[in-house]
Amino acid sequence: MHELSAIWHPTQADFDLFAQVSGDDNPIHVDPEFSAKSAFGRTVSHGMLIYSKLWGLICAAHPGARSLSQTMMFPNPCFTGEDIRLEVRGALPGTARMRAVRVKDGAEVFVGKAEVA
Predict the structure, then answer these.
(1) CA distances (Å), 60 to each of 49, 63, 79, 82, in order?
(2) What is the mean pLDDT of residues 79-94?
(3) What is the 8-class DSSP label of residue 79?
(4) Rounded mean pLDDT of 101-110?
(5) What is the Cβ-side half-sphere exposure of residue 39, based on CA atoms within 13 angstroms?
(6) How far apart are CA 44 and CA 54, in angstroms?
(7) In this predicted structure, what is the pLDDT of residue 63?
């Protein structure tokens, strides 16, 4: 059983760079003025940015790991400036259970799993 964890402090620069790399430049991620008028009140992370941070934990511990499949949900928003605890548990290779949680209130911002070879 593996348990991997890290703290990530997301920044607007993270969101902007991920938008450039991924091509997902939805204003909810990259435009603070637009986002201020949204239900969230500020920019929110791309879901796949959170997943890539979690996948990075796996790859750091298991170079050459390959993702065979993944499922994910984003029950709460991930904002800039709020520490996020990244957690991966499971038998690798095999099923990795992944979770990302806001440190300040324990709200899950990502819940999922990946089949890892």
Answers:
(1) 16, 6, 25, 23
(2) 95
(3) B
(4) 98
(5) 2
(6) 17
(7) 94
Q: pLDDT at residue 2 above 90? A: no
**Domain region containing 91:** 2-116
Is residue 47 scored above 80 in pLDDT? yes
Token duo for residue 26: 């939805």
**pTM greater than 0.90:** yes
- The confidence score (pLDDT) of residue 1 equals 67
How far apart (Å, rounded) are the C-alpha atoms in residues 112 and 52? 12
- Tally the domains of the chain: 1
Please count the other Cβ atoms lying within 10 Å of the Cβ belonging to residue 48.
14
CATH of the domain at 19: 3.10.129.10
Measured distance CA(40)–CA(35) in Å, rounded: 7
Work out the number of other CB atoms within 10 angstroms of the CB of residue 11: 11
- Radius of gyration of the CA atoms of the chain, in A: 14
